[in-house]
Each structure stands twice: as C-alpha cells, then as structure tokens.
Amino acid sequence: MQSTKPETSIAQVDRAVWLDLMRCMIRARRIEERLIRLYHQGKIIGGCYTGIGEEAIGAATALAAGTEDLFSPLTRDLTVHLGRGTMTLEVFRHWLGRSTGVTRGRDGNVHHGDPKLGIYPMISHLGAMMSVIVGGVMARRRQGKDSIGISYIGDGATSTGDFHEAVNFAAVFEVPVLFVIENNKFAYSTPVSEQYRCKNLIDRAPGYGIEGHSLDGNDAVSLYLFAKELIADMRRNPRAVMIECDTLRMRGHGEHDDASYVPAELKTKYAARDPIKTARKMLAEAGVASDADIAVIEKEILSEIDAAVQQALCEPAPDAATLMEGIYAAG
Ligand SMILES: Cc1ncc(C[n+]2csc(CCOP(=O)(O)OP(=O)(O)O)c2C)c(N)n1
User: Fold this and answer.
1) Domain CATH code at residue 269
2) Is the pLDDT of residue 153 over 60?
3) What is the DSSP string of 230-286?
4) Domain range for 201
5) Alpha carbon of 34 to ligand 1 centroid (Å)
6) Residue 295 pLDDT more than 50?
7) C-alpha to C-alpha distance for 298 and 185, rounded to whole angstroms
8) Beta-carbon neighbour count of residue 254 at 10 Å?
C-alpha cells in the first residue's frame, strides 16, 4: 500500500471548488431524503435505493476529474451524476418515471446515465460495469483523448468474477481506470467477514501488479485533494489504480430493508463521521465556508428540489403506445 497523503492543502484550492463539493453532497443528501418520502407516498414505484452516508466518495472523485473522463456510478453514487452536471430536475423526472426523463419513463430507478456527461448507465450494481468502462477508456484513448475512467464498486462486487477480469485486463494493458471500492461493510446483508479473507480489499492490488490506496471514505476534503493529484498523475503516467474507501451506508440496501443486521455501534461510529458534517467542520476551520455560507446553500437546494418535484409531477407518464420505441437504434 502506498502513502496516501496529498501534497496540496485546503488553502491551495479555489474556494469555489470547496463550495461545489459541499453543494454536491448536500444536494445528493436532500434529493435522496425527498426520494424516500416520495417512495413512501407511493409516488416512486418499485424500489428506492440511496447512498446516504457515502456521498463523499462520488462527490470528491467526480469533481476531481476532467471533462473528457468517463464514469460508471452505481446505486450509491448520485453524487457522481450531480458532480458531473446532471440537473436536479432530471433526477426527479427519472425517479418519478416521467416521459420527459432520461429513460423516458422506462426505468424509474437507478439505471440511468448520460453519454454527454461521460456517465454510463448502470447495468447491475455488481461488477458488470467494470469491463465496460475499461473498454470505454481504451476506445477514447484510441481516438487520441487523454481520458481516464472511474469505476465505482461496492465490496460485494469485489467478490465477483467481473472484478477479476476487469482489474487484471486494465492492469496488464495499463488502461488508466481508477477502481473505487466503496467498502460499506455489507453486500446487502452479507458482512465482509463472509465475503473475503484478506484484511483489506486493497491487499489485492499488489496481486494484480497495481498500486492501491486505503482512504477515509467519509472525508470528502482529503479525498478530493488525493484524487486530484492521483488523476493528474494517471493522465501523465497511464495505469490502473485501486482505492478502497472506508464508509457505511446509513440506510438499508433499499428502503424496503431496515438494515437491522448492521450493529448499532457501527451506525453510531459512522454517524459521528457523517461526510457532510465532517467536510463542513474542516472547511469552517480552514476559514473557507462558514455556517452562514452553508445555510445559504441548503436553502437554495431545498427550493430547487421543491420546484423540481412540482414540475416533474406535472409532466406526463409514458404513453403505452410508445413502449416498443427506443429498443433498437435506427438503422
Ligand atoms: C449480477 C447481480 N447479482 C445480484 C444482484 C443483486 N444485488 C444487488 S446489489 C447486491 C449487493 C451489492 O453489495 P455491494 O457491492 O457491497 O454494494 P452496496 O450495496 O453495499 O453498495 C446484490 C447481491 C444484482 N443486482 N446483480
């Protein structure tokens, strides 16, 4: 495992970047809280899956990346969508199954993406996206672009064959993909003790001949500083890298799951290290953003969410007659 201490300090980064980081995490948190309400009101059909408690990882890495980079976010990574430019209204159109949404109401759930923003729609929450993004980065590089990819996965995904194939291939062919493991200690209800024998997942990196870093997944500020330097270095010196981010999801796997299998002391420990509170404190201490600054952001985001929900609810559901459209590309 390599040293994980970034050389840059908070003061060396533009204040605007830190405010964007806070906006991204707060926006994701408040959107997901609203999604939960809408789900319990029967307005979101199917399941409701959130990344509450894990916002730092997606926000920090998505904001640290460049314009030509590619991303394969999963269920817990709304911050990646928002950090790359997905608008709040689009999130609600999608989850509310509106015909105006990005999947035109075909999926009111987590399988959304946006090619314009370099975001692959998710196939499965497990390792299925890993090889896709490795191939995507190779394709972009053949077009002469200096793109890197960020592949987000949970600890559960690391127990699948897809993980091995994608990491090994990227390692051998030096494809610059950052494999971000969000180790939230459970794959659904299966604890990590029933998933793997190594102490840390990052212990696997040397086996693939790549570097690995262990990071605090709830510290968005340090993660941003670290990711910014790492991504710049991966662009200069293309290679696959793995990071393992220590975190905990603060809700169930989905809203149908009460997560009673998560020990109370673990929840308490991670609640005390909530990513939004942690970043707020660090930025306040560094004199970057005061409580009043954050209060303004909170207010703006809440009214943006109210307006987006109101608008999305007024928009039409898909017309059943269009069901067979959009399945095959036009010849
Ligand atoms: C191929 C496949 N198998 C099983 C599932 C069902 N499933 C969805 S998420 C999940 C657990 C994922 O755990 P982890 O990778 O740790 O991510 P987390 O939910 O903790 O973020 C399972 C078994 C699936 N979506 N796809």
Assistant:
1) 3.40.50.970
2) yes
3) HHHHHHHS---EEEEEE---SS-SSTT---TTS-HHHHHHHHTT-HHHHHHHHHHHT
4) 10-317
5) 23
6) yes
7) 30
8) 17
Please, are residues 252 and 258 in contact by the beta-carbon 8 Å criterion?
Answer: yes
Q: How far is the CA of 181 from the centre of ligand 1 (A)?
A: 13
Task: Flag whether pLDDT at 329 surpasses 90.
Answer: no
Structure tokens belonging to residue 214: 């262990």
Cβ < 6 A, ligand 1 pocket? 76, 124-126, 154-157, 184, 186-188, 253
Structural domain count of the chain: 1
Provide the 8-state DSSP code for 219.
Answer: -
pLDDT at residue 4, as a whole number: 65
3-state secondary structure of 107: coil
Q: Is 171 part of any domain? A: yes
Is 267 part of a structural domain of the chain?
yes
User: Residue 2 has what pLDDT?
Assistant: 47
- Angstrom distances, CA of residue 297 to CA of 27, 52, 287: 9, 18, 17
Q: Is residue 5 in some structural domain?
A: no
- Residue 179 placed within a domain: yes
- Please identify, by atom number, the ligand 1 atom nearest to the C-alpha of residue 158: 15
Handedness of CA 121, 141, 67, 179 (dihedral sign): positive
> pTM of the entire structure?
0.97
* 14 has pLDDT over 70: yes
Read off the pLDDT band of 53 (50, 70, 90).
very high
pLDDT tier, 7 (very low <50, low <70, confident <90, very high otherwise): confident
